[in-house]
What does this fold into?
Amino acid sequence: MNVSEMKHVVGVAKGEITPDLVLKNCSLVNVITGEIYESDISFAGRYIAGLSPDIDPKGADVVDCKRLYAVPGFADGHTHIESSLVSPAQLSRAMVPHGTTTIFMDPHEVGAVLGLQGIRTFMDAVKLCPFRAYLQVPSRVPQAPGMESTGGVLDRDALLEIMTWPETASLGEIDVTKVTHMRDEYLQRIEDYQNKGLIVNGCSAGVTGSNLNAYIAAGIAEDHGCSTPEELIERLRLGMTTIQLRESTSSKDVLSLLEATKKYHLSTRRLSFCDDDKKINDIVRSGHIDENVRLSINAGIDPIEAIQMATINCAEHFHKEFDFGAIAAGRFADILLLDRLDEFPPKQVYFEGCLVAQEGELIIDIPEYDYPDWFCSTIAYPESLSLDFLRRDLRSSDTEVHARIIETEGGNLRNRVVIEELPARKGFVLATPETGINYLVVVNRYGNAESSTTAFVRGFGLKSGALASSIAHDHHNVVALGATLEEVLFALEQIRSMKGGQVVVQGSNVLEKL
It folds into this structure.
């Protein structure tokens, strides 16, 4: 809030200046005191000016809320916009009508592909959207130095520059091994951000005992990766200040983690919500942070506590409680109007004093950001990409070989390696789709290496056809899977012509593409 805005807010609060809008007859949910009571709410520009049972509008526009509940706009404490598979503007159309007005975003994927310049451009695109975006600075690009190729590299100098940006709120999720192996480069990044008064985010799924102690001892403030009540309570007992309950496309942890509140008689004030990675179709179908709230209330959490987890708990964790997270004087005027505290989407969504969504629909126009050509042209395969190029790893003079096969099951993120015999013909080892073994190919997309890898995988069961994707955490080279290498190559060529995306092919036909 600058001085001019402050004078306007103070004048409206004192009753000396006409408000920009007054919400009358609200049932105000106060997440600071845990109360619900009747109040009017006056707006001064982007901010809330005053709360009182009978505000004089002085001729200002008035909305009679007719005892609708007024709750603060919801916050997502950790997300990757890229995982939604749509642009920030398109994400707005699905997310904001569900009541999310603030996000903390880690653009790791953009950083891996386009580096510092890409992140700056992406943040500029987000500025056009009707939600507030704070930046969790990607801490590990590349994720595995020396083992993967990326288009962008975020070294200490880059992270120090991003630290000065006004959107920056924290250092993004630090890999546990970077701390426990005492890697100077990453420990220095933690020190840099802590010295600036910024928190450091964590993700430590499955880590326990001495390694978890070591991780927290380095100053990791929170975690969004735990999935059991035991993991949650251990992290809080050892000193993390917040655990984010994640409900994403692939990790549905809210209900499991809420068991900790019963098992350990745990207060919810150290819990907040995130989605991490949630595809756009899941947001449209199930909601965004409002899904976390609804699940919590249905599981027996007091509605006010569930709303605190979606608002003030997150704001306080990031030291932003005087900006958002509560309906209070001087905070941004981000307000949801609800018939019931467990019924979504909201009747109305206000963002920074403007009505932006109503009855589940965005009602404002969002300009599409004009991305530069270099931002959208990131597929640069090796010049020698061909069938022979993809077969380089499969050479053999035998007729049968013992081959390492990646085995996955049921979409689980964890897999294993098994050794099985595969046939070899004309000097190359072959996949056997009839027994469920397919080709798995990774091709460098960045034009900085003549590299690819071809392996074998079981668990997808393709008898024919191929899939390819330029979305491949965390390096985002192009990954393809197929019954034959000819179909794999055709799928790879489609990704190049599309300038990235996902495709399904069979023979020489494109079945689906995104």
In short: The longest strand covers residues 21-30.
